[in-house]
Specification:
The complex is a heterodimer. Chain A is an all-alpha fold. Chain A is 75% helix and 0% strand. Chain A has two domains: 1-251, no CATH class; 254-457, no CATH class. Chain A has helices at 2-20, 26-46, 64-84, 95-112, 118-136, 143-174, 179-185, 191-207, 216-223, 226-250, 256-279, 284-305, 308-334, 346-349, 351-365, 371-386, 391-416, 428-446, 449-452. By secondary structure, chain B is an all-alpha fold. Classes of the chains: A mainly alpha, B mainly alpha.
Chain lengths: 457, 164
């Protein structure tokens, strides 16, 4: 509850910051203060010290799983603010409002990680996505940004409509909105429950951009101002996954064997389509959009397996993927040329930046000694432990092998190709923070248990 | 009496909905849609959900329809500017949509819906007073949290609408 209330309040504080001061750099400082406050408050709630005692009527359930994910999401947002916060000033004049919208998204994230009723799921997902439509449109003079926002809005509202229809079916079948009540209520899979569950599955698959509901992703991620793509593709996506897992575990866990094949097909399609299409991209930004689809395939394995290893793996995956992608995007924003050629010879002019970028890309590819390796490892082990559908694990391993190709294309461009100076201007502070992010990725790659032990509280 | 009214309203709703889809002129579509909303509101009143009926009229038949009409008038639509749709695309859409309809109808046609008795003893369940009580006791949390949703939508409208 701490995180939900404080993030909403801090969103309002950010709005007033925009009124009080016209200086463009102030909102970033206030936002960093806010996110530090959120991390502390969330930590205190995790330690058993909630500030607010709200009567939720059982509609929210604060478990260590949700709270640890909140911690991961807020920490990733802190890095995002530190690395890319000042780049928001180049998008438009309403910097304070952009930060306010991001805090509202975080409020939605904290609801999505703690819902125990389908009503709250709907509200959480909506509070997460509506500010994103606006952030996608924030570059008002840019036609691509407008296109991205409109596309995202139309597709997003359509999938929300499907979700509502699914919720209506489930309510008709069981007479309750509570996930626990749904899980207990179904002795057998009646057509009504089936229709509701499949509609919910489709809309959640849309929100996490799983194939075959991924078609909006490349255009939206490409058209949105790069600063906001970074946020959209990492923290929000990971939070949608937590909601997906919680929904299917709490509401449909008893019918696991009935829908497992459906999720397995979606997972396999996502892995194959995401990875193969990423290979053919010429722009690094578009490649990252497809890579986010491919990584979504791996995260879906947790929903497929629905066991403890999968849950641990999803937390680790969220941390590894978010940090690494935020790092890559932070450097990408500074580049003028978004194609692979733009990275040619970067190692010669910016050796530290290139080295850190390499660590992030290695983590995304899942090379040992980085957090990405253990994240993928946990996912595959979860799928194996589940004991069903072994072929999915093979698809996962093969796709991971394909993904190495396109991540290494960037590394190869940086180290083995000649190019002219890309003239990147970054401060020492930026490099230091990027270094810290890379260190966290390596530490998590050696000691994933340091993060995962938090779940055993 | 109530049964006749029910079937009349149902026929009106379905006919209106079909005309929305089949009208060539978009303005006519919108006008038919208004009829659909009125007929649905009639259903709500028959179920004793007066608040829902009024809200449906004010929000949908009122505000949203006016918005629709504005958009259609501003877009200046005529047949020349209308993009030609691919024949195959249309066919694929019809087949896909038809299959979905078939599957849903086949699956749902003989399910038993848990109907709770809405008439009789609980006859006042749809009244504003009852709704208010439930909204501010059992459902107070979603009610309050939806304010964040509206706030972010308002901020967004200002961000997009403001002159730079």
């Amino acid at each position: 509850m701490n995180a939900i209330i404080l993030s909403a309040i801090w969103g309002v504080v950010m709005m007033y910051t925009g009124v009080v001061t016209k200086k463009k750099s102030t909102p970033k400082v206030v936002a960093i203060l806010g996110i530090l406050l959120l991390i502390t408050a969330n930590w205190l709630e995790y330690a058993g010290l909630p500030f607010f005692n709200v009567h939720t009527g059982g509609m929210l359930a604060f478990t260590s799983f949700g709270l640890v994910f909140n911690l991961v999401a807020f920490t990733a947002t802190l890095f995002y603010f530190l690395l890319s916060g000042s780049d928001m000033e180049d998008v438009g004049d309403n910097v304070a409002d952009y930060f306010a919208l991001i805090f509202f998204v975080l409020c939605g994230v904290s609801i999505a990680t703690s819902f125990a009723s389908l009503l709250m799921l709907f509200l959480g997902i909506e509070i997460m996505t509506i500010p994103l439509y606006i952030l996608a449109a924030s570059d008002k003079r840019n036609l691509k940004s407008n296109e991205a926002a409109l596309k995202y809005f139309l597709m997003g509202t359509f999938s929300t409509g499907l979700m509502l229809m699914g919720i209506a079916f489930l309510y008709g079948a069981s007479g309750t909105f509570y996930t626990e009540g749904l899980n207990l209520g179904f002795g057998s899979l009646t057509p009504m429950v089936m229709a509701g569950m499949v509609l919910l599955m489709i809309s959640m698959a849309f929100k996490v951009s799983a194939a075959p509901f991924h078609f909006w992703t490349p255009d939206v991620y490409d058209g949105t101002p790069t600063v906001f793509t970074s946020f959209m593709a990492t923290i929000v996506k990971a939070a949608a996954f937590i909601a997906f897992l919680r929904l299917f575990e709490n509401a449909f866990g008893k019918m696991h064997s009935e829908w497992q094949l459906l999720i397995a097909i979606i997972t396999a399609l996502t892995l194959i389509i995401g990875n193969l299409t990423a290979v053919f991209q010429q722009s690094v930004k578009r490649m990252l959009a497809y890579s986010s689809i491919a990584q979504a395939g791996f995260m879906l394995l947790a929903v497929f397996a629905l066991n403890n290893t999968g849950k641990q793996g999803l937390i680790l995956y969220a941390a590894a993927y978010s940090l690494a992608t935020i790092g890559v995007f932070a450097v990408l924003i500074k580049m003028k040329d978004y194609t692979f050629e733009g990275f040619n010879g970067l190692a010669k002019y910016q050796p530290l930046l290139a080295a850190l970028l390499t660590i992030f890309l290695l983590s995304l590819a899942g090379i040992p000694l980085t957090a990405g390796f253990f994240a993928k490892y946990y996912m595959l082990v979860a799928a194996l432990k589940n004991g069903q559908m072994f072929w999915l694990v093979i698809v996962g391993i093969l796709s991971a092998a394909v993904s190495i190709y396109y991540y290494f294309r960037v590394i190869q461009a940086m180290y083995f190709k000649e190019g002219k100076d890309p003239e990147i201007h970054v401060s020492e502070g930026f490099k230091t923070i990027l270094l810290v992010a890379a260190l966290i990725i390596i530490i998590l790659g050696i000691h994933p248990d340091w993060l995962l032990n938090l779940l055993n509280n | 009496m109530a049964e006749i009214l029910f079937w009349l309203l149902t026929a009106l709703t379905l006919m209106g909905a079909l005309m929305v889809v089949f009208s060539k002129n978009p303005v006519h579509s919108v006008l038919w849609l208004i009829l659909v909303f009125f007929a649905i509101s009639g259903h709500y009143i028959m179920m004793n959900a007066q608040f829902l009926a009024i809200v449906n009229l004010i929000v949908y038949a009122g505000a949203i329809m006016v918005l629709f009409l504005f958009v259609i008038m501003l877009m200046n639509m005529n047949s020349d500017t209308e993009p030609q749709k691919n024949k195959w695309l249309k066919m694929a859409g019809a087949i896909a949509g038809g299959s979905l309809l078939l599957v849903l109808v086949a699956a749902l046609k003989d399910t038993d819906i848990k109907t709770r008795s809405l008439s009789g003893a609980e006859g006042n369940i749809g009244l504003v007073q009852e709704l208010g009580k439930v909204l501010f006791t059992d459902y107070v949390l979603p009610f309050e949290i939806s304010s964040v949703l509206f706030l972010s939508a308002m901020v967004g409208a200002v961000v997009i609408g403001k002159k730079n």
